[in-house]
Design goal:
BPL_C, about 30% strand, 2 domains, 7-stranded mixed beta sheet, alpha+beta, 5-stranded antiparallel beta sheet, globular, BirA Bifunctional Protein, domain 2, EC 6.3.4.15, SH3 type barrels, about 25% helix, 12 strands, single chain
Length: about 260
């Protein structure tokens, strides 16, 4: 695999394949897509239904930034996916859900999984996995998760998955390059999503609404108004007592009453 986009019929997990390729030195921008996966996964180890008919893509990313800033890649990639869909006239109803999902009509349209690693020379890299429901909508919903929706449910005329793949691959590689340049021009202590902060928050669902923050185990951590996400990617919730911030590894959000 080179820095171009390779499409295969089936594999276990495109992220696993590119984590291995990245360790062997695969360059920035190397993309791998599959018609179907047998071992797709999402955040926190959740199974990702990878039945044929949807967009299943992973990309090797080697941004020349402090690896501790890699946590900004999910936001950057999410915005890039939206941009690619917008160019196809498909993004009218689509927004982002903190920290790494695409949503439409209160349902989950897609997800992004960024995994960081080091190659055999000790150089850091990340693999960004993107899954978007296009023609097939999974019926199984993870615990506490949103029901699914597909692009074909939102639009009558959806391009082929291959057309979407090329657009999303190109958009993410370009967006990561721009983010890298902007971040490196900022102060050293700038937050990972500082270069895209305003755009990211503008596309987030539930800003200004009442939400519940739950731990990975499902325990309630806080409830209040979802005010914003800060430059470090933390969700900021105004409770009755104070303003609380949660890192994406600590919590997930749900609208109150849902």
């Amino acid at each position: 695999m080179d820095a171009k986009l390779t499409i295969v019929d089936v594999t276990g997990s495109t992220n696993d394949d590119l984590l291995e390729a990245g360790k062997q030195g695969a360059p920035h921008g190397t993309g791998l897509a599959a018609r179907a996966q047998t071992a797709g996964r999402g955040r926190r180890g959740h199974k990702w239904d990878s039945t044929a008919g949807n967009l299943l893509l992973s990309i090797v990313l080697r941004p020349r930034v402090d690896p501790t800033k890699y946590s900004g890649l999910a936001a950057v990639s999410g915005l890039a996916v939206l941009e690619a869909l917008e160019k196809q006239g498909l993004a009218n109803e689509i927004g982002l859900k903190w920290p790494n999902d695409l949503v439409a009509r209160g349902r989950k349209l897609g997800g992004i999984l960024v995994e960081a690693a080091r190659d055999n020379e000790g150089k850091p890299f990340a693999v960004c996995g993107i899954g978007v429901n296009v023609n097939y909508v999974p019926s199984e919903v993870p615990d506490g998760g949103l029901p699914a929706i597909g692009l074909s449910d939102l639009n009558e005329n959806v391009p082929t998955v291959d057309v979407l793949l090329k657009g999303v691959h190109h958009a993410i590689v370009n967006a990561v390059g721009t983010w890298t340049d902007l971040l490196n021009a900022m102060e050293e202590d700038a937050g990972p999503i500082a270069p895209v902060h305003d755009d990211y928050v503008a596309h987030l669902n539930w800003i200004g609404e009442h939400v519940i923050a739950r731990s990975p185990a499902g325990d309630e951590l806080a409830r209040g108004i979802f005010q914003t996400v800060d430059a470090f990617g933390r969700a900021c919730i105004e409770t009755e007592d104070d303003l609380r911030s949660f890192h994406f590894e600590e919590a997930s959000l749900r609208p109150m009453g849902k």
